[in-house]
UniProtKB/TrEMBL annotation:
GO terms for biological process: cell wall organization; peptidoglycan biosynthetic process; regulation of cell shape. This is Methicillin resistance protein. PROSITE patterns: FEMABX. Keywords: Acyltransferase, Cell shape, Cell wall biogenesis/degradation, Peptidoglycan synthesis, Transferase. One of its GO terms (molecular function) is aminoacyltransferase activity. Signal peptide: none annotated. Belongs to the FemABX family.
């Protein structure tokens, strides 16, 4: 096995591998890496090949890939940095557990020689992943991405989807339709700072601030939509949904399509006219659109237990009949112990001072 760095000419084969595997995510897509580059971050992508003779120039590379990883370089003081693989590495579909661990270790060892100033790599594989008892270089860490999600199977008909929902959710969808809530969808093809996107983004940010979610700036969301508008022919497709009642925007959401999954990435809802249940209509329409587009799953992007900080929001998601999918969580692969200990100490100190 060997780890091979990829370039632009490998984009399609890389995306084909990531999108086709259950452990793949849009966060490991080539386009997401380009978005990170647009934010000023350095991004590197690699494939793990079973062949000793493999290279980035091989034409049959999509068949030989047994693992892939996209890394974002995150700065640390004194010229150091760590590498972050959101929902990565991606293992070949069907690989047994022992083989995955062997593949991961090969990736980690190869990367250590390629990034001499890296303090550690933070990985968040979606596969089952456990630390081998003898391995002190890999430790459990704090999740950055959701450690679990709610995933809805779209193979059912529209009526079957409704029947599988909680009766209250089903009632609210029909109530919203009865009130005349209109759901609009906009592909991010004419994106910009116009009123259409401004209102939707304002609502997303205001909702996060009201509910004390961590959020990005309004400028970030505008740049996000603008970027994917320019890359609309790529594998990652971004859509903006709005639920409107009597001309008033009551709910908005940014959806991301990749592979066979539509992900509800960002969303917001107004405090006005809550009785018309606008978010219910929005999500049901987005599900039906995803199904019509040939997608297989609708990902609600994050699940917490009822004891979490926002149980009401999670209960809203669960009402649609989605199943909880748990991920392995985050791990740090440590390359430089002394720097890593200093990093952890400073992080802890920063939390105390806040």
């Amino acid at each position: 096995m060997q780890l091979i760095e990829l370039s632009e000419k490998n984009k399609q084969a890389y995306n084909d591998f990531v999108a086709a595997n259950e452990s793949g995510s849009f966060l490991q897509s080539w386009e997401w890496g380009e978005w990170q580059s647009a934010l000023g971050r350095q991004v590197k992508r690699f494939k793990l090949s079973a062949s000793a003779k493999a290279s980035a120039d091989r034409q049959d590379e999509s068949e030989e890939i047994i693992g892939a990883i996209q890394l974002v370089r995150m700065p640390l003081p004194f010229g150091r940095y760590y590498l972050y693989a959101p929902y990565g590495p991606v293992a070949a579909f069907g690989a047994n557990y022992k083989l995955q661990i062997t593949n991961y270790k090969t990736i980690f060892n190869e990367l250590k020689s390629k990034f001499s100033n890296a303090v550690f790599i933070r990985i968040e594989p979606k596969d089952n992943f456990e630390i081998p008892p003898s391995d002190s270089l890999i430790i459990k860490s704090s999740n950055i991405q959701p450690g679990s999600t709610l995933l809805l199977d779209l193979s059912k008909t529209g009526e079957e989807l409704l029947a599988a929902m909680h009766h209250k959710t089903r009632y609210n969808i029909r109530l919203s339709e009865k009130h005349g809530v209109e759901v609009e969808k906009e592909f991010a093809i004419s994106a910009g700072h116009g009123l259409y996107f401004k209102e939707a983004i304002d609502l997303i940010v205001e909702t996060a601030e009201r509910q004390r979610f961590k959020t990005f700036s309004k400028n970030y969301y505008h740049k996000f939509i603008d970027f994917f508008a320019l890359h609309q022919k790529g594998e990652v497709q971004v859509h903006l949904y709005k639920a409107v009642y009597k001309g008033i925007l009551l709910s908005s959401a940014i959806m991301v399509d990749y592979g066979k999954i539509r992900t509800y990435l960002f969303g917001g809802s107004s405090q006005e006219h809550k009785n018309v249940m606008a978010p219910y209509s929005l999500h049901f329409r987005a599900m039906l659109d995803a199904k019509a587009a040939g997608l297989s799953f609708y990902d609600f992007w994050g699940a917490e237990t009822s004891g979490g900080k926002h149980p009401g929001f999670v209960k809203f998601k669960q009402g649609f009949g989605a199943e909880i999918k748990k991920y392995a969580g985050a791990y740090d692969v440590i390359y430089r112990h002394s720097y890593y200990r200093a990093y952890k100490f400073l992080r802890k100190l920063n939390r105390i001072l806040k």
